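User: Second chain of the day. Same drill as before.
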Amino acid sequence: MSLRPPRASGFALYDAPYLLLTVTALLWAINIVIGRVVAGHVPPVTLAFVRWTGATLILLPFALGQVRRDLPLIRRHFWLLVLLAATGIACYNAMSYYGLQYTQALNGLLVQSTAPLLVALWTFFIFRERLSLGQMAGIVTSLVGVLVIISHGSLDTFLHLKPNIGDVWIICALVIYAFYAAILRKRPGLGPLSFLVSIMALGSVLLAPFALWEAAQGRILHFDHMTLGVLAYVMIGPSIVAYLFFNRGVELVGANAAAPFLHLMPVFGTALAIIFLGETIAWYHIAGYALVITGIALATLAARAKRRPPA
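Assistant: Same format as last time:
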């Protein structure tokens, strides 16, 4: 079995950024729902630590050849990799899981909708990259679609969604992750597997002392059936697969063009509730989905036009 990095000539999916980003949003939406389900059952920092340690151990045998080849680059860009690991791996995930202990998955998905705007702000502050009117229109349109879904088409319902300390933690996590997405363009020229395994391993090291502190407080991981199932999913789906796909999507289209696809997370979240929790589909689901898809299409077309050289 081989998990060598896909190449454009041999793996068409790896050159289909919008499909990669769509799958990423689905995997991360499931992760948010799972994070809420196990809140209070699995310690949040320990969950993040075991998630990334396990993902590193799973990916390392497949990435070892690339790691050996890229070792000089890893040494040269070590502190940049530490920064990417701290923002995209350690802080974001531990803070998100912690926040989900105090808020509903619905609120968590709503807060995720701010990610495209946060990415746009970071890319402007760091690289002075401005959004085109088309990109901004797409982000706003899809954001409205998310709000329609979450509020059930009712302004009163939306106004009564009260933020709490959990929402604040998730917002802070998203600000940090948006920084990761923005500076991802500066990633060293490592292979996709060696880059991912490097930041995952560094993220695990950064999380280790906090996981030990959590254990010292008496919050121990109990390996029952629920815990084992959750760990198996989070190690592979939202970790290895989603990060490979997201990193490649940003590489192909840029952070601002990739960010609107994060609006698909609440869409997938409500769809999962309909499929697995028996909730019924309503007009606001259809209207919201249509607005999200329209917004992503607008942002995608605008990003393509922005990248197209003048005649």
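The chain has one domain: 12-307.

User: Great, on to the next one.
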